[in-house]
Amino acid sequence: KGKVVNHKICQSVINTTFRMTYSDVNEMLAGNPEKIEQFKPIMDSVSAMAELHKILEDMRERRGALNFDTSEARILVNEKGMPVDIVVRERGTAERMIESFMLAANECVAEHFAKAKLPFIYRIHEEPKAEKLQRFMDYASIFGVQIKGTANKMDQLDLQEFMAKVQGKPGAEVMNMMLLRSMQQARYSEHNHGHYGLAAQYYTHFTSPIRRYPDLLVHRMIREYTNNMSQETREHFEEVIPELATSSSTLERRAIDAERVVEAMKKAEYMEEFVGQEFDGIVGSVVKFGMFVELPNTIEGLVHITTLPEFYNYNERTMTLQGEKTGKTFRVGQPIRVKLTRADKETGDIDFQYLPSEYDVTEKVDHKARQEREEKAKAFRNRGPRRDRQNGDFERRGKRGDNRNHQDANGRKGSYDEKRKSSKKPDKRKNQNRPHNDNKGRESGRRKKKGNKPFYKDVAKKRK
Fold first, then answer.
1. Confidence (pTM)
2. Which of 319, 283, 295 is nearest to 140 (CA)?
3. How would you write the chain as a 3-class SS string?
4. I need a surface site. Which of 172, 208, 385, 434 has the fewest CB within 10 A?
């Protein structure tokens, strides 16, 4: 149920009879009498579309498609472009319904041309790399959830089961984001390798030719293929598609990065007026230099480790920060109270300061981490081995007089400093500039310049 049984690809015209928004459709499907009356002529069609969407959604879930339920920000601006509010973007039935039809169309077109063995551009998503997936599995076990399968071979249904287990728990959204980051990035390719995240055997981008170049390219190819394409045209597509796929993937990443930068700048600009205020948030990620805290409206800021009240050790395996004295611990998904200390709209940076609260968690202090840190500091002070200048033997560089009973490769004893003094050769140049009398009683010393001519040029001339 939910599989396409027949399709037709041809040039067509979209005939719009009603202009509706996502909100209109969501309210109508929710039973709003006013909206039902307003769109009465198409009420049955919209209801059938919602039913079909549910069938397609269930089909994708059965085959193992991953639904990363993460929050997206919606930035509201005034007529001058100034941000006035930031809210979480909602995804109701109307939004998901359009998405279901879009996915079905993209899969259908990709399968059609893959089976026709024609040059084509695909949207592919390869299996996650074992190293990243293993790190996520390790953290998930610490979180209290086991994942079936191995890092080298992970089925989508196993990941789907994991996401169902953490749904509704504290930090579930953070776990979904961490799983998303462990995936490889989707890209464009002339070869069909399927789409891991959608659990689809064939996939392309076809539905948005007015805003995405790969979609426009697909439409152009469809037009050529359906109009008695020549051999010359086929060879042209075979030649240009690999380069176009690579450049489209690169430019997509660049566009996403630019979008993130602008979003960060607008968020920082919005938060400037709230400097000094306190907020409750969630620890989104923990790193060596601190932790990133996310507020309910998706705004994220840094609590730098230097602003914490004591020394904190970072545990990379558990992704936690723990205080050396108190044992106070910060981990991903943990609630936290912070104060906004800085918001820079030019860089997009937002800084928070940690505030003690009822959310704080204290655990047994990991003395091993402190011991390792002290050993590293001691090793750094000693600066490691240093080669003996005289015989090539290695000795520890420490305080003067160390290793007095040390025996080198030649059986000689004594400290490094003593050897250095004994092996030091006299400097023949030490007294060469001191005036003295030669054997004829004439006072001599360093040779002087002849006129304005430097001495070293005179010597060079004589050598020639």
1. 0.74
2. 319
3. CCCCCCCCCCCCCCCCCCCCCHHHHHHHHCCCHHHHHHCHHHHHHHHHHHHHHHHHHHHHHHHCCCCCCCCCEEEEECCCCCEEEEEECCCCHHHHHHHHHHHHHHHHHHHHHHHCCCCCCEEEECCCCHHHHHHHHHHHHHHCCCCCCCCCCCCHHHHHHHHHHHCCCCCHHHHHHHHHHHCCCCEEECCCCCECCCCECCCCCCCCCCCCHHHHHHHHHHHHHCCCCCHHHHHHHHHHHHHHHHHHHHHHHHHHHHHHHHHHHHHHHHHHHHCCCEEEEEEEEEECCEEEEECCCCCEEEEEHHHCCCCEEEECCCCEEEECCCCEEEECCCEEEEEEEEEECCCCEEEEEEECCCCCEECCCCHHHHHHHHHHHHHHHHCCEEECCCCCCEEECCCCCCCCCCECCCCCECCHHHHHHHCCCCCCCCCCCCCEECCCCCEECCCCCECCECHHHHHHHHHC
4. 434
Distances (CA, A) of 78 to 73, 83, 237, 265, 268: 16, 7, 46, 16, 16
- Arithmetic mean of pLDDT over the chain: 83
Give CA 271 to chain center in angstroms: 24
Residue 190 has, within 13 A of its CA and on its CB side, a CA count of 14
CATH architecture of 275-369: Beta Barrel (2.40)
Amino acid at 91: R
Residues 257-299: tens digit of each pLDDT: 999 999 999 999 999 999 999 999 999 889 999 999 999 999 9
Distance, in Å, from the CA atom of 414 to the CA atom of 405, rounded to the nearest integer, reads 6
State pLDDT tens for residues 338-397: 999 999 999 999 999 999 999 988 887 766 666 776 777 777 777 655 554 444 444 444
Q: Residue 443 is which amino acid?
A: E
Tell me whether residue 142 is exposed, middle or buried, using C-beta atoms within 10 angstroms of its C-beta: 0 to 12, 13 to 18, 19 or more: middle
Where exactly does CATH 2.40.50.140 map onto the chain?
275-369
The pLDDT tens digits of the residues spanning 143-169 come to: 778 888 788 888 888 888 888 888 877
CA distances from 369 to 50, 167, 373 (A): 55, 33, 6
For 419, residues 6+ apart whose C-beta sits below 8 A from its C-beta are 388, 390, 408, 412
| pLDDT at residue 220 greater than cutoff 90 | yes
Radius of gyration (C-alpha) of the chain in whole angstroms: 35
CA distance 163 to 112: 32
Q: Could you report the per-residue pLDDT of 185-215, keeping only the tens digit for each?
A: 999 999 999 999 999 999 999 999 999 999 9
